[in-house]
Amino acid sequence: MDGKPRIVSQRYLGSAEDIAAAMAAREATMLPERTRHLAFGDVAAVWGVLARLGVADVVDEVTRARRADAGASVGTYLALAALNRVVAPCSKSAFADWWATTAADRFTKIENRVLDHRRFWNAMQAVTRAELAEIERRLALRAAEIFELDISAVALDMTNFATYIDSTNAKAPLAQRGKAKQKRYDLRIVGLGLVVTRDGGIPLVSHTYPGNKPDVTPVLRTFVQCADSVTSWSGGVVIALVRSASGLARFAACWRPRTSSTGPRAWRSSSAHCPWCVTYWSAST
Length: 285
Known about the structure:
It is a single chain. By secondary structure, the protein is α+β, with helices and mostly antiparallel strands. The protein has 10 helices and 6 strands.
């Protein structure tokens, strides 16, 4: 006042230690009572790819029927099963518990109450072998179109994988004791033939067989079945791969599409005389 300072209000805040304690107490009152940490990134990424491929829609188009008491469609349940296998594999009985640890219900609008393990079993049993093959074909074509996959020449390789199916379970004839490539000789295994792209090894067509049969036993039947399926819609060449004793890959056979609508498919058992195999061998080495 009149050019001179005037103290309007004055309060003693205490020592530096008192001020620090007061600030800490204030911050403590601002913290939430509880928090939830939910998985989001990996689940959202995989679900985005499944939605882009239209997996659920393709399955529903092929199977068509839907149980009136089902919480979701057959395609949705199979898409959820695939999502779980990619992100955090678990049993169908444990699926609902895993789902509760993610934020997926917010963007999928699928509630936990419809994820009972028996609903997954009903959905899987609703798909026949013929429908499964058609679903596989449609998804392979969609993947080739969306991701611009080169299917002019693809490869077939044989492998197997271990399962945790009980030894006394007689309802799973494909799961048998055999030479497990995972070295899990204590588990029942399933043989698997996969037709994959040359670039990236992206699977297109699959075929399963009993795990107690060595690769050389079902390889011809699997090769013909997978090759015939792929060449019928891709027009490409399928090359069968086997592994030699030294661990190096070598070619067993080549399968080409029909030259006409009535002509036979060309078969070559020696890769040395096949230009497609030689080309692929040169590229892979």
